[in-house]
Amino acid sequence: MWRPCPRCSARERPSVLRRRILAAVLAALVIPGTAVAAAPKPVKVVKDVTIPPFPLAGLQPSIANDRGIKLGGIGSGLFPGPRDGDYWMVTDRGPNGQPTVNGQKVRTFPIPEFAPAIVRVSTKRGVEIKKYIPIVGTSGKPVTGLSNQAGHDEVPYTWDGLTVLPYNPSGLDTEEIVQTPGNGEFWLVDEYSPSLVHVSARGKVLERLVPAGLHLTGADYPVKETLPAILATRKQNRGFEGLAINGNTLYIAVQSPLQNPDKKTGDASRIARILTFDIRAKKVTGEYAYQFEDVKTFDPKVNGDQSEMKISGLAYVERNRLLVDERTDNVARIYLIDLDRGTNLLGGKYDAPATTPSLEALTSLSPIKLPSKSLVIDLSVVVPSLPGKVEGITLLADHQTLVVANDNDFGLGAFDANGKLIDSGVPSRIVTIDLGRRP
Known about the structure:
Blueprint lengths: L12 H17 L14 E7 L5 H4 L18 E3 L5 E5 L9 E2 L2 E2 L1 E2 L8 E6 L5 E7 L21 E2 L16 E6 L6 E5 L4 E5 L5 E7 L11 E5 L12 E7 L2 E6 L8 H6 L2 E8 L4 E9 L3 H4 L11 E9 L2 E7 L4 E7 L33 E7 H4 L7 E6 L5 E6 L7 E2 L5 E2 L6 E6 L5
């Protein structure tokens, strides 16, 4: 209790009271033996570089006619390289479009001989390509990015959408990349099967792991059916998209809810799946439900279409904690999740196609526990100029520097009468962000 100061005048007493109250408040805020905590640093962009327009034919001599298409799409994956400012990146299946021909949308491949490639870049002085490694099969031939199987994948067409191309069981739609310590080998994820792909340091596919029962035959490398069969119900062009690594554990994200039991259910669902995989044992060890945000509040521009929500990248933090890139084409946010807080569904009833309702159809998840989830950064606010399709994310060793990259789809736009690309002008960028704190 405050008592009057006997030696103070009546005019001085209120001032003394204020000083004593302030001192008491400050004393209460300071824990003995500790310093006053500093305010968190603001989030800021520390580097923003654009990948130059390298002609594809100059990078892959096997390409007869690149149709004026430049290197792009390498923002599909991002992983720290051997030196500061170096990154491993990966293309997707290559230049592809979806024009409407005779009233029907078709999947076109303007450069059918293109091989997905692993690319090492340096961002010390702009962007320099240090290595360009086309992915090849056991024979040494490029795998290409063409569709694999009739009935399971989209029908491939030439650039103009008029001629059907042959399927290629070796084709890969690669999306994310990590490198294993020591031997320099890579693991990639693929959207087609979906599959997990083990690749040598020189770009040769060592094995491709696909869902049980897929029956993918004729590939120019070993194919093993080791993944849960339910994964084959992935949505077209929405297979595996995110990949992260910690020692001998891989973390794999399906881009969208499975079409389980059907397309209508998958498009309306907010539940995707994240897997854990033991590299030594070559088997899946965990499967977790991931709940998307409600698209109506996440991105009002897509008019309530929940199917616009996607997982486009993962980054390892610590233990079983991951960063998740959740996005539409307009909004991208990075969330921190903890798989240890979620229920491991592997091998349970939700891996069985006969289960009704399916995981994707559930409106109440109880008693399933979701991994904890909290917002780390809204990229749409911090980097509003960043183009859509932010697909590559990685967290550097200091645990507070986030690097992201976008997939510009090789600048694909329209083609002129001679089949030469009229570039979309969308840049392919690598942006480094100081989060100001550890996630």
